[in-house]
# Entry
Amino acid sequence: MFVQKLVLRQRTEILNALCSSGSAEHLEQVLDILLSQGELTWEDYQNIQVSGRALHCNARKLLDLVYTKGEDTCGLFFAAFKRVLPDAKGVGTSSSGCSSTLEEKEEHQSTCTETLLTQRPSLVEKLRGCIDGALEDLVTSGHFTSADCCEVQLPIHTPCQQARRLLDHVRSKGESAAKVVLQFIQHKQEPVSPLNQEKLTPPKEVLTYQKKLSSSISAQSCFLSTYGGTSHMSLDDIYTDGQLELAHNCVDVHGPLGLEDIVGAVGTVNKEADTVLVSGEAGGGKSTLLQRLHLLWARGAALQDFLLLFPFSCRRLNSEQRELSLQELLFQHCCWPDRQQEEIFQFILDHPHLILFTFDGLDELKQSFSDEHRLCCPTQRAPVHILLFNLIQGSLMKGVRKVVTSRPEAAGPLFKRHLCKEVLLKGFSPSGIDCFVRKHHSDAHVAAKVLESLRTNTALLGLCHSPVLCWIVSQCHKELLGCGEGSLQTITDVYLMILQNFFQHKSSLKNTAGLCWLEQHLQTVLHLGKLAFDGIGATCYIFSGTDLETCGVTEKDICMGFLMQSKDISTHAEGYEFLHLTMQCFFAALYIVLSDNTDRSTIPKLFETRKMKEAGQSSRCFIACLPSTDQPQRPSGGETTAAETPNQQITATFVSGLLSQRHRSLWLHCCPSAVMEKRVRQVVKCLSKGMQKHFKSIPQPVEGEKKSMHAMPGFVWLIKCIYEMQEDRVAKEAMSKLEVDHLKLTYCNIGPVECTALAYVLQHLRNPVGLQLDNNSVGDVGVEQLLPCMHICNSL
Ligand code: ADP
# Structure
């Protein structure tokens, strides 16, 4: 009973200490603490804190209440009192030996309303200087009316009292209002940019360098690169937001991410790491997204926490043969400082948190990621891929933020260990397609017609989720609007359309001999096809004049627009690359289909990706098919190349499409029909064999359970190849041997395009299945695409 008695005995002193200043602040602070500790209920609080009643009366009410609550509450009251008034004379428990301590409540409570209560003392402190901002957010979010604001901001209240009134009001408005306030406070607390935080004024030479770097980046990124060969389209005019999502579930993040969230802390899973991976399919917009980030940084419109940004393209790093030091890599590949190189480099080393590196297309690097060769010394020379891998791991320049883009297959577990997070780029949303087409056509009438025609062809609309296909479709709008409804179905159709479009627009040749367009340009197709085919075999995407010559590529072929001049800043050598990697795969496929120079094992090897992976070899199908003198140089040491399997799969998909019955009339005069027939048979056999392999992996069901198949991404790829062929008999045959009750296709990277293919093939199943598609990006458009196979799905 000792502390309780003390409340009685020291009543006068306590009241004096709490009220003598005439301000209610001390009393209210004590109340805040007791509320947050759960010693006072909300009702208790309202009974004590009656507005309009004299301060002394309120204080007496508090003392009465804590007394009646007993020893523990009295102990905590003294602890709260001491925290608010540590120097108050004649009040206290220290001599009594009673030592109640205030518990620090966990910051993360189960609800926001609870957090408002348990964190009340600190929230009052944080809110008192920014009541206006918090009220503004509450009004904007529809939780507060202007009358609520007036009540909170009564001029008789001190800022702390206003903060308390605000919290009390929010409490009555419920959980979502509480969330708005907490978010507002969190936002206010977010660390200020490191630049401001340190009050750092970078040396003059660094600022001069930054100016040069940003103007060079701005110049490089203001036009969309794939239009180089066709027309100049400014990035500002055409850039359309893609869909960004975290690869893993994160409780704090709901809804899509913004561009700056890629680099920001949101969704971080490994705080030790500094590398963010942006993964997405070929043509999904990864390079364009980085280009956008670069441009915004260079203009001072985003990422301003970073003083210097160094953009790298793995494609270009491939052609760097020399061993370089980190300094040489930065300055020679990005921007050369006109003077004081050493001082600038030292500044970079000393301020890693002010530096951002971007590496576009890790999947295009000749070497797969490895952490075997450690390098910690920034002045030591090494091959560029070793520098890159050590930067990613953080053994070199720890603390520098890195953004790496890659296709999903190429980012293995070893690499992922060094990531702070992974962000998925999932192409355009339905409204993104709409927006892109409208931006692409300044004539609103044309845009409306293109969109209308897409709406009538849902398969094509599905394809347009991929930005590169959306671009082609939009670019070829005349062909699109001119061709019959529904005639464009597959990815191959779309690429054939752009092939025809380019030939017809760029060619000055008059078709006097009545040749079909392909026949007329067959030589160009074969020259570019060989270049593409050899390049994929050698993981080569930038071609020198000699490469072009070897494949017979002429000036006229270049003029057709499929190649664009490569901006190789490192070597300053003139180079060419295909408009897009998928275009290179398409030309490689054309070569496989049309050339009489390829080996008969080319097609079987093309479809054998899994086996080769299992054997741990590099996929050498392209090279193996060439005469040995023609074989391009492989990366030394026979390393496996991360890029090969996906490129091979894209090429195989195109080969299937090109050999479809629907396109055979095109080849009529370009290739002997017996050869064509043989190639078709080879593809059909490969597809059927590939499917069999998947079916064989189905385990026998446990008695009483359903027979279930868990498909791998390779299965979806085969389905896509079958879809490209558009031959019912092939689909029917493939499905005739699949006998399962349940088909699990989780984590298979299935989007609308894959849904179209799935529906086409699965509708040929003999017996109904349950289809499980969790953890993909099916979306509304995808579900619509699945309609044709709904009759065979007993559950979805
Ligand atoms: P990836 O690097 O994933 O292979 P790209 O960024 O090269 O894909 O995109 C291929 C093409 O698609 C671009 O050249 C451009 O025409 C179009 N594209 C991609 N993303 C966008 C975007 N966000 N806005 C407008 N067009 C885009």
User: Anything to note?
Assistant: The first helix runs from residue 2 to 9.
